[in-house]
């Protein structure tokens, strides 16, 4: 440690760049991948609108014991996927019930959902 115990080796190395070859591995067209930052509207909302599915998932998530933390991520993902598929009417009907379980989790789900319906529900 700091030269007090045992022995110390110091090695020096020098590298010299001999040659560089030009290489271009682009397999995509840049202009085809450019997207604006505006939210894309999802038109394929689920035909079956069930607010009870979201309410039940929120209930399970809130009542999940701390010893079952590995299930939390799965339930949260399922809840967000369910909410993303909801139309605004169904989402508004479910909000009072899920807010009663946990206001914090409700806002977290709505923020991570990211659809215009979820953003409107936050307001």
From TrEMBL:
GO terms for cellular component: low-density lipoprotein particle; mature chylomicron; very-low-density lipoprotein particle. It comes from the Eukaryota. One of its GO terms (molecular function) is low-density lipoprotein particle receptor binding. One of its GO terms (biological process) is cholesterol transport. InterPro entries: Apolipoprotein_B, Lipovitellin_superhlx_dom. This is APOB.
């Amino acid at each position: 440690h700091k030269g007090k115990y045992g022995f110390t080796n110091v090695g020096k190395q020098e590298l010299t760049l001999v040659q560089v070859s030009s290489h271009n591995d682009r397999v995509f067209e840049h202009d085809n991948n450019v997207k604006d930052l505006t939210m894309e509207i999802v038109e394929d909302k689920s035909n079956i609108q069930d607010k009870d599915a979201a309410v039940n998932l929120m209930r399970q998530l809130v009542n999940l014991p701390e010893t079952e933390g590995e299930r939390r991520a799965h339930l949260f993902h399922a809840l967000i996927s369910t909410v993303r598929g909801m139309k605004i009417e169904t989402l508004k009907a479910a909000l009072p019930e899920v807010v009663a379980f946990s206001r914090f989790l409700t806002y977290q789900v709505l923020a991570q959902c990211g659809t215009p319906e979820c953003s409107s529900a936050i307001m």
